[in-house]
Each structure stands twice: as structure tokens, then as C-alpha cells.
Amino acid sequence: MLRSFSLPQQAMDALWGKLGLGQHVFPFTVPDGPRNGAETPSPDVERALTLLAGSQRAVAVCGVLAGGRNLLARVAVKGEQAVLAVHQAERFFFQFIYPESVERECVHLLPRERAAPGVAVASDLHAAQAIFARPRLRSGYFTAFARGRDGRERQLGTLAWIDNADGRYCMTEQGRRQGTVAPADDANLTRQLSELLTRHFVG
């Protein structure tokens, strides 16, 4: 069984249409409808694409890194199967992962950065914007999704992160006007993401 593989954008578009997977999944843009010239995919490739399109739960990873480079990725989970997909330089990179490693795999997509000084504080979003308005080195967010019994995918929550001269911060929303801002190294960010996923996916 393949553990990892990659597809050029054109092949991804063609296979997505050939397999009838419907609309693209965020944060990727894959045209809908059939595409000509797609060969029959291998079982592992078909399994990865089908899992990406029909996951029970998923996390989208988006960001703007140094030099304006975009980070676009998605981890999809269904039962005991999980796959990580990253879109980079007109190519999609896939890797089968363990479902229990979702949070760690998502965070490892970010460049390493020290936690900013301070402690977690609950604040209104206007106060949090003061931190997020400082000159930033990198920034982005994780968005959690789950599929309901009606087959529709719903957005469950977002964890934002930002790197500035002080280090890395993360912010979780609590209602429309409240949130928590906290220093975030890899360990803290993994824990915060795990809490977001556990809150929605367990029970």
C-alpha cells in the first residue's frame, strides 16, 4: 500500500471529475464535473481522494508564510482512516496518517516558532485585534469540519495563529465578540487544536 504520493493539478482535476466526487473541499479549488483524459486511478489513489471528499471530520489548514507563500492543506478522517493533502506549486501531495495524529500533523505543517511571552487571557475581540494588528511574519488558521447525518459538511470552529516579532500567538473565538488569546509554541498549539476537536467530535 502506498503511504504517500503526489498528483499534478491537472491530474487531480481529472481524477476528481472521473470519480464523481462533486464539489471541491475547502481550502482546495478543484473544478466540478467530468474531465477528459483521466486514467483509472490505483486503489490507494482512489481511496485517498474518496476519503478527502467524503470525510466524517476534517481540518483545513490555511496560512500565509514568509515571502507570501500560501499554505493550503486538509486532513480528512473517516473511521480508522486518515489522509493529509497539501497543495503546493501546482501539485497535490498526499500522505496516509493515523487518525490519532491529526492535531500533530496539522501543527507540523507550520514553521517552528517560539511562543510569545505572557499567559492566556480572555478578552474582547477588539483587544485581541491589537495583537493581530502588529506587523506579522506569518499567520493563518485551522478550521474544523464534521459531516452530519444529512450528509452535509458543517464548519465547527476556528483556531487562528499569528507570528510577529514577539513569537507565536493563537486565538480561539468564544461567541461573536469574545475570545481567548494565548502564547503558542508547537505543544500549546497542538493542545489548543486538540481541545477544539474534542469539544466538537466527542460525545
What does this structure look like?
The structure is a single chain. With 203 residues, this protein is an alpha+beta fold. 25% of the residues lie in helices and 38% in strands. It contains five helices and ten strands. A ten-stranded antiparallel beta sheet has the order 1-5-4-3-2-7-8-9-10-6, with helices on both faces. The mean pLDDT is 87.
N→C terminal distance: 33 Å
Poorly predicted regions? none
The total of beta strands comes to: 10
How much of the residues is beta strand, in percent? 35-45%
The helix-and-strand class reads alpha+beta
Report on the biggest sheet.
10 strands, antiparallel
| Average pLDDT reading | 87
| Amount of helix | 25-40%
How is the largest sheet built, in terms of strand order?
A: 1-5-4-3-2-7-8-9-10-6
Shape from CA axes?
Answer: elongated
Task: Report the C-alpha radius of gyration, rounded.
Answer: 18 Å
Say what oligomer this is. single chain
The total count of helices amounts to 5
**Order of SSEs, N→C?**
EHHEEEEHEHEEEEH
